[in-house]
Design brief:
mainly alpha, two-stranded antiparallel sheet, 8 helices, about 180 residues
Length: about 180
């Protein structure tokens, strides 16, 4: 496991909590933030209450860290990787990755700093090249601005989810309180 993942996993699991089976949550039973559906896709067959933290960590590493390429993002910016990881856990890695690609396209000064990339939710070589170029041109201040953009999109999505499905109002306050921070 990478050092960044080891540092980040405790925060994510802390925000996700232990066993939950909230009637308004379409994900159904979860433990450590892992839904029953995700656990089954990774071969877990036991009762959700019995899943160990270690088993959940391995799912997180495969599904939400190395799978979407956030380990490669961490080599460029741990703060951006952390934001994508947390957003990916809560909304799905494809959503988080799409947010990154949209921000990078909007921040490239009409292609002057680097070309637009395809917004496909896949963090591949083009996304990594664009992030590298962005950080080279904009530095630490740019990293903070990118984080603000990611959080703005994340907050907008939470509001949209609550508007589209009233049951999500059960969660939107907590999502905004614990998941959306504007980078300083």
């Amino acid at each position: 496991m990478s050092d960044a993942f080891v540092r980040l996993i405790d925060g994510v699991i802390g925000r996700e909590g232990g066993y939950v089976n909230h009637p308004d949550d379409r994900g159904g039973e979860t433990i450590w933030g892992v839904t029953a559906g995700t656990a089954r896709r990774f071969g877990y067959t036991g009762a959700m209450r019995a899943m160990t933290r270690t088993q959940a960590v391995e799912i997180y590493r495969a599904q939400y860290w190395t799978g979407p390429g956030y380990d490669r993002i961490a080599a460029l910016s741990e703060r951006v990787a952390e934001e994508l990881f947390d957003t990916g856990v809560n909304m799905g890695p494809g959503v988080a990755s799409t947010m990154l690609q949209r921000c990078l396209n909007a921040l490239n000064r009409q292609g002057e700093d680097y070309p637009d990339i395809k917004v496909d939710g896949d963090v591949g070589p083009a996304s990594l090249r664009s992030l590298t170029a962005f950080l080279k041109v904009r530095g630490k201040e740019g990293e903070r601005v990118l984080l603000k953009g990611l959080n703005a999109l994340q907050g907008e999505r939470y509001i949209e989810l609550a508007e589209k499905r009233q049951a999500n109002e059960s969660f939107v306050y907590g999502w905004l309180r614990t998941r959306v921070e504007i980078a300083a």
